[in-house]
UniProtKB/TrEMBL annotation:
Pfam families assigned: Fer2_BFD, Pyr_redox_2
SUPFAM superfamilies reported for this sequence: FAD/NAD(P)-binding domain
Name of the featured protein: FAD-dependent oxidoreductase
Matching PANTHER family: ANAEROBIC GLYCEROL-3-PHOSPHATE DEHYDROGENASE SUBUNIT B
Length: 463
């Protein structure tokens, strides 16, 4: 297959970029691992479930309908080709452009290739969950996972839930579970309410987001969900599955206050500590990173010629920011593929929205930082790396007794991060216990690849 532009990821950023580029006459191949467009944000129930009001699970349904209809129009008229169930494991630079390598279907065994003159990365982000005693019990799930179950399967994992951690995702998750009939026993947030006051100027500059947050808070009040601010989960309890959690108050330094623990019975704990960008494909292409995010210029171009990036991969900031960045990236890529200098006036409104939203989420990042001393809650027998069953004690021993000073050395000494997820889940926790900054690990491939596929890579003509 050949395209002018290959867009990887069909979430808000990828969809906005695809529509913007196609509107300028560019042939676009939109590649996504899901069976339908929309990404995690616009995840919808399967048609077989016959949901009568899927819009009830979303607060931007009209935006989704506009994106969906626009994509359908461009696919039908020809400039856009939408490839579903394509799991991209590598983007290869060649003298004639780029080759996108993917695995097909749920089993991810059969290869596919797409060749393009340019690539736009809209690979999104993934959830961060920091470990604590009992976090591996059945019934403990990621907050985003709870939301995905509800949006995609109209399902919940239990009858009584605690939603805990930190980050703006907790509000819609708790509100969604409560609306679905789950008894939400508590929303446990480690954020300090005074931090919102200190960042009020940046936050009120984006009133739509403030109203959105207030709406979720209002729903929680209607469902009588109690909010425990500046609290954290200390331990999850149970034998064969989750039965209760212990939560405790935090002092101003981020440490648990002695004697403040309380036990809350529940069969579900939805927990999350923010989001991290997916940067695997960008790293293999040699794109520069700014900390954990892909570096881009005002046109959303990376420092690798022919590669653009937009959405959560350039910084966690929600769907509205992803839409703005995707639109800018699509317009820029279209102009440069046509051999012309882009005119920033073509995306002036999106650029203004991008500036405001980046400032808003930069302020939120400081408010929703995990507790400063969260590692003190990780006991020596707490499993940190679930894939390889490496405990906190083993990691601490690698540092104290074997001299490890960085996450890579800890990995070599303990196998933490060598499992199926390749450190995506445990990476922040391993770095925290090792006392070093978390940095992305550069990998040759973005996902596991069968050896047979590797042996045949490049044999297809891809056209």
């Amino acid at each position: 297959m050949r395209a002018d532009l290959a867009v990887i990821g069909a979430g808000p950023a990828g969809l906005a970029a695809t529509l913007a580029a196609a509107a300028q006459g560019v042939r676009v191949t939109l590649i996504d691992s899901a069976a339908e467009a929309g990404g995690q944000f616009y995840r919808r129930p399967a048609a077989a479930l016959r949901a009568r009001r899927p819009q009830a699970l979303h607060h931007q349904w009209r935006t989704w309908e506009r994106l969906r209809d626009g994509l359908g129009t461009h696919v039908e008229s020809g400039p856009v080709r939408h490839l579903t169930d394509h799991h991209v494991w590598l983007v290869e630079r060649r003298s004639t452009g780029f080759t996108v390598h993917a695995l097909l279907g749920p089993e991810q065994r059969d290869p596919a290739e797409v060749r393009a003159d340019a690539v736009l990365l809209a690979t999104g982000g993934y959830e961060k969950v920091l470990p604590f005693p009992g976090w591996t019990l059945p019934g403990v799930i990621a907050a985003g996972g709870a939301q995905a179950m509800l949006k995609g399967g109209l399902a919940v994992s239990g009858r009584t839930a605690v939603v805990a951690g930190t980050g703006p995702l907790l509000l819609p998750v708790a509100a969604g579970l409560a609306a679905a009939g789950v008894e939400v026993a508590a929303l446990v947030d480690s954020a300090d309410p005074l931090a919102f006051v200190r960042r009020s100027r940046a936050l009120v500059a984006e009133p739509g987001k403030v109203v959105e947050g207030a709406g979720y808070a209002g729903r929680l009040l209607r469902h009588r969900v109690r909010t425990l601010a500046r609290h954290t989960v200390v331990e999850a309890h149970g034998t064969e599955r989750l039965e209760a959690v212990t939560v405790a108050a935090l002092d101003r330094d981020g440490r648990v206050r002695p004697g403040s623990g309380r036990r809350i019975p529940c069969d579900t704990l939805a927990v999350g500590h923010g989001m991290l960008p997916h940067t695997d494909l960008a790293e293999t292409l040699g794109c520069r990173l700014d900390g954990l995010t892909v570096h881009v210029d005002d046109e959303q171009r990376t420092d690798v010629p022919g590669v653009w990036a937009a959405g959560e991969t350039t910084g966690i900031g929600g769907s509205a920011l992803s839409l703005a960045e995707g639109h800018i990236a699509g317009r820029s890529a279209a102009a440069r593929l046509h051999g012309t200098e882009p005119d920033p006036r073509a995306w002036a409104a999106a650029a203004k929205a991008r500036t405001r939203l980046r400032a808003f989420f930069a302020a939120l990042d400081t408010v929703y930082a995990p507790p400063a001393h969260w590692t003190e809650l990780v006991t020596d027998d707490t499993v940190v790396c679930r894939c390889e069953e490496v405990t906190g004690g083993t990691i601490r021993a690698a540092v104290a007794e074997l001299g490890a000073r960085d996450a890579r050395t800890v990995k070599l000494l303990t196998r933490a991060g060598m499992g199926w997820c390749q450190g995506r889940v445990c990476g922040p926790a391993v770095a925290g216990l090792a006392g070093c900054a978390f940095t992305p690990s550069r990998r040759p491939f973005a996902r596991p690849v069968p050896l047979g596929v590797l042996a045949r890579a490049g044999e297809a003509d891809g056209d």
